[in-house]
Amino acid sequence: MGIKRQKKLLNHRFTIVDLILFIILAVCAFSIVFPFYTSIVVSIMSEHEYLRNPFTLIPKKPELDSYKTLINQGNIISGYKNTLIHLALGMPISMYLTCTLAYALSKRYFPGKGILFVFIMITMVFGGGTVPAFLNIKELGLINNRWSVVLSNGIGTFYVILVMNYIQSLPASLFDSARIDGANELTILMRIVIPLSKPILATVGLFYMVDKWNEWYGSMLYLNKASLYPLQLELKQIIANAQILDDIMMTDSMYRAMPTFSMGIKMAAVVLTMLPIMCVFPFLQKYFVKGVTLGAVKG
């Protein structure tokens, strides 16, 4: 009887609830993948084919004219280089500030912890404003300097709270044993906390990477030299110029013969922007769910 019952349970494991959950997850996955797929399709379509059938899922004659126009009209290579420089400079600073501040706030005996934590929480609700931030960067002499972008996005308070909660979930006996052996706080942080916090650090690092990759507003405020523009700002200007030219072509017959496809250029910009991050994400995915789950639970 026991064997028959187990077989019966195995046969009825897939219930109606599982079917509903599968459909919901499938719809969510489709809603995420489909827009990116359509962006790729539109970016390799000709303007004539797009105007004839904008809902085509498989282009009949794929072409790379939008990508060629995007590369030829703007300094994409320089934008990629500046963005990578901002990542190389900003990631170590952001991770260092986040780890040290989170470790300090995770300790109950840290002097002034309550007041400091209140100030951190205030910054998540209220901001100083664009004008004070600009004046601060100007007084520091960082206008037209890439350090203005790097330092103005140095730390995220939400990420500090995630790392702090994760550190608080670690066993306190580890820290006590290290102190008995003569380890100071820096040694505990570098040799115990950071190795055990790889999931949350990988998650926060991915968040910082996406933030710095998509950064353009600070660059627009603090940088006036085109040679320092990051990728997002370069693409923003290229798309804006393509849209302006497209509007002129609609009204002025002198420019109608100029080859341009503003929608294809926009979609090509989306693909060039998202593709590098999508290539990095799978390598950090195994840490992502665990890091967010543990870091979001108060220790």
Describe this entry's structure for a reader:
The structure is a single chain. With 299 residues, the protein is mainly α. It is built from 15 helices and no strands. The protein has one domain (67-295): MetI-like (MetI-like fold). It has helices spanning 2-11, 16-43, 47-52, 65-73, 76-105, 113-125, 130-139, 146-152, 157-168, 172-180, 185-196, 198-213, 217-222, 231-251, 262-295. The two termini are 47 Å apart. Mean pLDDT is 81; it is low at 254-258.
Distance between the termini: 47 Å
- Summed over residues and divided by their number, the pLDDT gives a mean of 81
What does the main sheet amount to? Answer: none
Task: Return the CATH architecture.
Answer: Orthogonal Bundle
Order of helical and strand elements:
HHHHHHHHHHHHHHH
Tell me the CATH superfamily: MetI-like
Dominant shape: globular
Number of domains: 1
CATH topology: MetI-like fold
Quote the beta fraction: under 5%
Binned, the helix content reads over 70%
- The overall strand count is 0
- List the total number of helices: 15
Radius of gyration: 25 Å
Which regions are unreliable across 5 or more consecutive residues at pLDDT < 50? 254-258
- Output the structural class: mainly alpha
Counting copies of identical and different chains, the oligomeric state is single chain
CATH classification, class level: Mainly Alpha
Brief summary:
By secondary structure, the protein is mainly alpha-helical.
Give the topology.
Blueprint: H1 2-11, H2 16-43, H3 47-52, H4 65-73, H5 76-105, H6 113-125, H7 130-139, H8 146-152, H9 157-168, H10 172-180, H11 185-196, H12 198-213, H13 217-222, H14 231-251, H15 262-295
Helix pairs in contact: 2-15, 4-15, 5-8, 5-9, 5-12, 5-14, 9-12, 9-15, 12-15, 14-15
